[in-house]
């Protein structure tokens, strides 16, 4: 499966389909970083941006570390919209690229960074937003090197995913009730809320939910915890522990070394970069030359 696209209906992809997107995509590529410096316009046309920076509370003031009034819904909508805008820029040379397709495809965000918020039973009151991380995430996402062109350098991609995953914080401590990993505090997963199918990512969420439990150690028997990236070897399947759940061996294993197959998802790579072509291999950049075709009508 590719890192993004219509194949993402199965879930093991970069832009994962967990929940809906926006009703429409308006193209806007203004980004200024938190330090106030001026960056080139995200359209890469050589013009310079002088607009106010993206912030997470609707204004231009610096965000606060407690969320600054930002709701989970606000952040989810901003991720969906910013992802759509950036792809519209990256795919402007493709006459068949349809911006209208973006909202339907980009539901769970890049590498499922906002996955789980729409799972039945999940209470958004159990999730908070780190506004500083959210702002960094959106700025980095809007300036993302196009995966379908030069490819995203692994250092850039790793920083982006770290900031975006860190923007959402679960509040439920170990042994508390949950319906998805996103509700649990970091270092925990939601045990019993998801039953994998014959294919681990083709399972079902259980109406009764589950219980937040500590993540498992290297070598432990593991399971997928949702239809996207989630597992019980790292927080929300982000790879933050240096481990991932090998869904073939069902063991927590060390992140995959450079030159080894990555199964089309960058979160399993130590470099956080899956080079999709010519074969899916962990490497120094995330590249997918077929990216724009996933948004054809």
Overview of the structural elements:
The longest helix has 19 residues. Helix 1 runs parallel beside helix 3 and helix 3 runs antiparallel to helix 4. The protein is an alpha+beta fold and 297 residues long. It is built from 4 helices and 13 strands.
Q: What is the radius of gyration?
A: 18 Å
pLDDT averaged residue by residue: 79
Order of helices and strands: HHEHEHEEEEEEEEEEE
β-sheet strand percentage? 5-15%
Physical arrangement of strands within the biggest beta sheet = 4-8-5
Helical residue percent? 10-25%
- Give the termini distance in whole angstroms: 19 Å
Oligomer: single chain
Helices, by number, come to: 4
Please provide the count of β strands: 13
Structural class: alpha+beta
- Write down the domain tally: 1
Q: Regions with pLDDT < 50 over 5+ consecutive residues?
A: 1-67
Summarize the structure.
With 297 residues, the protein is α+β, with helices and mostly antiparallel strands. It has helices at residues 72-90, 102-105, 131-142, 154-166, and strands at 127-129, 152-153, 168-170, 177-178, 188-191, 194-195, 204-205, 210-214, 243-246, 251-254, 274-275, 281-282, 285-286. The chain has one domain.
Structural key phrases:
two-stranded antiparallel sheet; disordered N terminus; 297 residues; 16% helix; alpha+beta
List the helices and strands and how they pair.
Elements: H1 72-90, H2 102-105, E1 127-129, H3 131-142, E2 152-153, H4 154-166, E3 168-170, E4 177-178, E5 188-191, E6 194-195, E7 204-205, E8 210-214, E9 243-246, E10 251-254, E11 274-275, E12 281-282, E13 285-286
Helix pairs in contact: 1-3, 3-4
């Amino acid at each position: 499966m590719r890192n993004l696209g219509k194949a993402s209906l199965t879930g093991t992809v970069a832009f994962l389909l967990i929940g809906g997107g926006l009703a429409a995509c308006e193209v806007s590529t203004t980004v200024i970083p938190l330090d106030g410096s001026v960056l080139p316009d995200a359209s890469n046309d050589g013009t310079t941006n002088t607009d106010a920076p993206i912030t997470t509370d609707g204004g231009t003031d610096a965000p606060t570390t407690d969320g600054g009034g930002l709701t989970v819904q606000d952040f989810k909508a901003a991720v969906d919209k910013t992802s759509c805008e950036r792809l519209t820029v990256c795919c402007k040379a493709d006459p068949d690229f349809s911006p209208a397709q973006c909202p339907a495809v980009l539901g769970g965000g890049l590498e499922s960074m906002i996955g789980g918020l729409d799972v039945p039973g999940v209470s958004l009151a159990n999730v908070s937003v780190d506004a500083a991380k959210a702002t960094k995430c959106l700025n980095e996402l809007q300036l993302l090197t196009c995966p379908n062109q030069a490819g995203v350098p692994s250092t850039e991609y790793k920083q982006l995913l770290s900031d975006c995953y860190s923007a959402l914080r679960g509040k439920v401590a170990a042994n508390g009730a949950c319906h998805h990993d996103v509700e649990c505090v970091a270092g925990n997963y939601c045990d019993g809320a998801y039953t994998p199918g014959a294919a681990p990512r083709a399972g079902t969420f259980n109406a009764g939910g589950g219980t937040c439990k500590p993540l498992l150690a290297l070598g432990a028997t593991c399971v997928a915890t949702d239809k996207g990236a989630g597992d019980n070897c790292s927080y929300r399947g982000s790879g933050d522990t240096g481990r991932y759940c090998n869904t073939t061996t069902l063991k927590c294993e060390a992140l995959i070394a450079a030159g080894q197959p990555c199964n089309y998802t960058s979160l399993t790579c130590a470099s956080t970069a899956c080079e999709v072509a010519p074969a899916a291999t962990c490497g120094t950049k995330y590249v997918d030359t077929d990216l724009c075709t996933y948004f054809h009508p």
